[in-house]
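Table S2 (text version). Query chain:
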Amino acid sequence: MNLDSHMDHKLVSVIKGLVMDATRKANSGHPGGAMSSADFAAVLFREFLVFDPDDPSWHNRDRFVLSAGHESMLLYSLLYLCGFIELADIESFRQLGSRTPGHPEHDLTPGVEATTGPLGQGLAMAVGMAAAEAFQRAKFGAATVDHFTYVLASDGDLQEGVALGAASLAGLWGLGRLVVYYDSNKIQLAGPTSRADCTDYAKMFEAFCWRVISVDGHDRAALRRALAEARQDPDSPTLIIGHTTMAKGAATREGDSETHGSPLPAEEIAATKQKLGLPEGVEFFSPGDVREYFQERFGRLRETAAAWRAGVQARLAGGDEEFAGTWPLFMARRRDLPLAWPEFKPGEKIATRKAWGACLNHLHPRLPQLMGGSADLDPSNQTSAFRKAVGDFGAGRRLGRNLAFGVREFPMAAILNGLALHGGVVPFGATFLTFSDYCRNGLRMSALQKLPVLYVFTHDSFYLGEDGPTHQPVEHMSSLRLIPGLLDFRPCDANETAACLDTALRQEARPSCLFLTRQGLPVLDPGEYPGVLQGPRRGGYVLKDSRGEPELIIIATGSEVSLALDACRILKDKNVRLVSMPSVRLFDEQPREYRDQVLPPGVRARVAVEAGSPDLWSRYVGLDGLVLGIDHFGESAPAGQLAEKYGFTARNLARLIREHFN
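Corresponding structure-token output:
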């Protein structure tokens, strides 16, 4: 490859010019960090990153994650030079309808691998990507899966615990094809990092079992050597610490913390362009010789991608039966997955968490790309049998599919997002519902990125019992239902659990949460209640109908469905319809005609029952309706005693109904 110091300087200067002009035109953005990182990014993209210039979604491409998402204009400048976006996109930075939003969004802009902005999560998602690559490389061989994952991280990224928790796992798992460049410009939005941090990150990451390389982040020759060295260690991820200067190249503002989050003034931009050798008075300068220099490798990159596709086709057609039977399954659309579920004996009492465990054990032999684990709650989350059957993933155990996340709920959620972003993996993670608060922003990022991640939250109510209010969720289900695009599933028995799982795992672009019980629930007989097998697909359905037109409708979810069934038997003098509603969101998405069939508008006497916050249910029961919920924290006591105290008994529900509706 031709290395021309003059063109190297010109390339970096043009990138900085685009950054300055776009943020100035938008009157919004973060130029300082993008300018301090420009030397590394230019070297990486021009000389090291492997991708298909004609197809940014090619499976065996290197992944680049801009964890420092506020440096988005740096990435957009590179994607423009790659040919993935147009100069007009750069000129419309941060404007309505543009492909260059304030922070990178992976489903909006070609070449953006992950939606970043919440600091720390980009690095954590990259750990998931690198884990998926290592697993698939072991499964299919290096001729088919053999790529690197690169990250550009900032000081702020490493101050977030989610990044450090994920980095600890990356070191434990020996993800040697993960390379993180830490742009250490020692400035954050509020000022120097010394005001908030004294951490020696070199020592910290060495303690995490990473290789650490420190360089002058503006010495492009040193950056080349560091990247080449990082690619030679198959057993350890690498942290390259680039010691840099904020707003490097600015005429008078180098090292100024205000350049982190504010565009440079027009006069500073003019002086900086003169200093960098860019033409004065020319905005969005992008000469052809710079693009030609940047794209010097593109011919070889196209040949590499074409050879890979030919190799995959040869394996599919050339008698490699195992590959031909497995590769298409890994690449299959979610709706085409070969899902199958166990049968459950009516009348038995099975906690829905145990039903999930039985479903998982039935599923994992049929779904070899299923990968996930529990946040140190394997026995409680019913993932122990899965772990024993498929083995832990890790260094020297690349075909293991259980991810031992430890007590790291937030890193778990972000790593699951990375697995989903990489593709070819069906990811799941499990913990107690009360700890969903710890992974909430990662879960929100699943929804924002339209990723079909499965979250399994067990111990879903005060029925947890003796562990007390710290472990008993109250507001969590209602809170999670507020996240746009997130599917909620609270099944009432083992059969509904399987039906909810089937619906969740067939989602192409939405994450799902399962809310599962600790306590046993009676398995409903599909012969008597046929809706339990198919009804959950529509969110809510008539489980038990009245004789003729209903005079009262009871809506229940999860463990309260069997309670409501018992209450219906007490209210045998009434025409009661019982509706099971495992998924509020799915029910709300059904056509009006179906919703009115399930909940006839003319029936005003309505009751909702859920062992959680009652506020949500008012929209289904109306002002005249009744909601039995819980709007206070629980207590440490056996579950049965708490149920009596809080009124979650069939006898009390029937009494409340009679009193409320006279």
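Notes on Table S2: The mean pLDDT is 97. The radius of gyration is 28 Å.
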